[in-house]
Amino acid sequence: MEAVELLALILALVVSLAIFRLSTKRARARSSAPRQQTIKVRDPAAARHALIDQADAFSNRPPTPFPVPLITGRRRRHSHGITTVVYGPHWRALRSNLTATILQPRRQGLLAPIRRDAIAALVAGLAASGDVVVVARDSVYTAVFAMLTRVCFGDGVDESRVRSMERMMQEFRVAIGEAKVFARSTTAKLVHWKQWRRFLAFRGEQTALCLK
């Protein structure tokens, strides 16, 4: 029995050392990575040339809000969007498609009925609160989220599911901020395994609510 306990202790020590070594190696790799320099353009003509005339080649995307990859393996290469893909030709193609289709000014008129319904629902919700003090931000967020749900999924989504989607996305946003500790090392994922498991569970919840 003592021999088994000794072997288990040695195995645990070896695994801990391996994880620590891997975490240290990754931390050194991140710290030694070259940082992107900040470029300040002070000339108005040069700024217009870069931001407007050459926007597709110059403009970069904002930093990804996800501190850890949500999709790994081979699927990750085919699951990139404009907020996750590395800046380059792929990102510029996605940006051009977005500008030419969804953000095209001629298509904005198609969304007018949905916007009117969202504004009417917002006004009705605020009026129904009576003399109670409400946070306008929450009401506006709910109205905008319901409008985006109609744009993405049509009119066939019932109100209860829309509320479930909204609640899940709000919890997901909070989890993204908390997940920064998981991006440090494999050891952090093991120490905070409950939070890490909850973070990974959001993928299944998103699939259940949005794709089924």
From TrEMBL:
Which keywords accompany this UniProt record?
Membrane, Metal-binding, Transmembrane, Transmembrane helix
**Organism per entry:** Eragrostis curvula (weeping love grass)
Molecular-function annotations in GO: heme binding; iron ion binding; oxidoreductase activity, acting on paired donors, with incorporation or reduction of molecular oxygen, NAD(P)H as one donor, and incorporation of one atom of oxygen
Topology of the protein relative to the lipid bilayer: Single-pass membrane protein
Where, subcellularly, is it found?
Membrane
Q: Which Pfam families match?
A: p450 (PF00067)
Cellular-component GO terms for this entry: membrane
Q: What is its main location?
A: membrane
This chain's protein is named: Cytochrome P450
Against InterPro entries, the record matches this protein to: Cyt_P450 (IPR001128), Cyt_P450_sf (IPR036396), Plant_metabolite_P450s (IPR051103)
